[in-house]
Amino acid sequence: xxxxxxxxxxxxxxxxxxxxxxxxxxxxxxxxxxxxxxxxxxxxxxxxxxxxxxxxxxxxxxxxxxxxxxxxxxxxxxxxxxxxxxxxxxxxxxxxxxxxxxxxxxxxxxx
Length: 111
Description:
Helix content: over 70%
Order of helices and strands: HH
């Protein structure tokens, strides 16, 4: 088994000379000019349109959700205020009835 495995040498890690030269040129001058790839610009335009549609849909959804949430919360607040007003009116009515039935006769008897 050990006979089949070849030892790793330094030459195994060296670059192919043309690739090595190309990397040296790129490092010295920067990336070489590329041919325009029209598929890239079309896909970029498609992504921009998709993003625009997604932003519009998301915005519309947020607007509708905010609108219905506001209506729901306003109705709930209105109902709570009405319940509190009914409790206060009932408490005032109970106080008035107690005063009429219990306190007024005592006050009428006192000189």
